[in-house]
Amino acid sequence: MSVKVLIPTPLQKFTRDQATIECEGSNITELLDSLEQDFPGIKARLCDDQGELRRFINFYVNSEDIRFLDGKNTQLNAGDEVSIVPAVAGG
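== MoaD/ThiS family protein ==
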């Protein structure tokens, strides 16, 4: 099943400057594995050494924050849109 992934500008160096890519995966974990297979090195920017999603990277499935869904086990369906959004902080 194909899912559309929106890549933030700082990570586009891993996706050959593509802002939008099509990827496979039935959940966020599988999607990350698929991204890593197609674009080596990107997963280390999104996950820590234990494979957990980094706290300062937000994932949205069809505009819904996965922290309020099922986290990295959030199910994906064909045609879904996953947005990867780096957290912004400041004062």
